[in-house]
Structures are given as C-alpha cells and as structure tokens.
Amino acid sequence: MNVVEVRGLRYRYPDGTQALEGIDFQLASAECVALFGANGSGKTTFVLHLNGLLSGEGSIEICGLALQRDTLEQIRAKVGLVFQDSDEQLFMPTVLEDVAFGPRNQGVGAEEAIARAAKMLERVSMSAAVRKAPYHLSSGEKRRAAIAGVLAMNPEIVVLDEPTTSLDPPGRRDLIGLLRALPQAKILVTHDVEFAASLATRAVFFERGRIAGEGSVDEIARRFNWRSRAEE
Prior knowledge:
Blueprint: E1 2-12, E2 18-28, E3 32-36, H1 43-49, E4 57-62, E5 65-66, H2 72-78, E6 79-82, H3 95-105, H4 110-123, H5 139-151, E7 157-161, H6 169-181, E8 185-189, H7 193-197, E9 202-207, E10 210-215, H8 217-223, H9 226-231
Parallel strand pairs: 3-8, 3-9, 6-7, 7-8
Antiparallel strand pairs: 1-2, 1-4, 4-5, 9-10
Helix pairs in contact: 3-4, 3-5, 4-5
C-alpha cells in the first residue's frame, strides 16, 4: 500500500520561480526514500506540499486521503515534518513542554500529552533533558528533541529535511540508529549519500523542479556523480 501518491505536482513561487514541473512520486508503507539534488532543485518545496504548508497544482493523496482544504488537519496529523533547523520547532520553556505541544495542539489532554512526550523523549534517549530549556541543548540533542516532538503526534509518515546538518559523527550514528528503529515510512531530504545508504532502499534525484531519475542509493549516486559532489 502506498501512503503517499503524488501526480503532476507543479508549483510556482510568488516571484515567478517555477519550483516544481510535474512531479509524480509514490511512497510505500514502511519504506524509506532519500531525495537528492542540488540546492534549489525542488526537494524542500516538494516535501512542504505533503502536509499542506505549500499548495500547488496536481494531486496529493496521503494514506488514501486526498489533500484539500477540508482534509488539511487530518493530513497534518499523518505527516510529521522535521525541519532542517531544529530551532524552528523548539520554542517552549522546557523540552518536555515542547514535545507535548504538538499533541496538545491536536486536542489531546494535558496529562496524556505530557505522558506521551515523556515516552517519546525516552525513545530518543532524551529523558535526562526533560526540564532543560531547548537552547541549552547541543545540535544533536535538538535534532532528537524535534524528532520526539513529531513522533508524539503519532504520524504515519516522517519527513526529515537535511537531518545530519551540524551533527558530529557520534550524533550522526545515534540518528541513524534512531531512524532505523522507527516503523513509519520516511522521506530523507539529504546531500549525505552514506547516511542515505544506511537507511533508504530507494533514492530520487531532483533536478530543476523535475525528477531526473530514481533507483537504489548507490545507483543514483553513480548516475548523477552525486557522491563526489556531496563530499566536496
């Protein structure tokens, strides 16, 4: 079963930039797919459409539900997006409150939201930080806290935009271990071929707003000479 079905997606920014030129994309249940491509190729623009943060032409179905105005709340509960800059998602006084914010916003009661937040922080090895202010966390800790905040909302799909940015090697290894353990379908927007290869079974290459190719991570890295570019 596909949890994401995108057909003919096109998007033009208000300044006239054509960012997406007819994207067709599918994501199967429990599948992990990496999105490669140069900056400005359309990767982030594409994933922002999956939970309605941007709206273009074409059709999007999430878990069999058509993305439209009256389904937006349901769709956003199904697609959890972890931004490249974790500071964009961490804004409450403590880490525990931050992770509980999403469930509370979904209408979950305070006690249940706190319990769910504590459980997810334990899952990402962040229980010791529940009372800390987010700005006291390291880059790797902020990334794990942001992921916990997404997981606390019980999404069926997790989208991560450049998740290894600012992570040191131990933080990167921890992140790989965490993501491997997640049962959800995952989309990784990344330039990191080795990171993608450790998690994804398929890669999709974006070029000038189009999908230029797809296949295994190694195949796409070779075809588009992406490994050498990413390591420059």
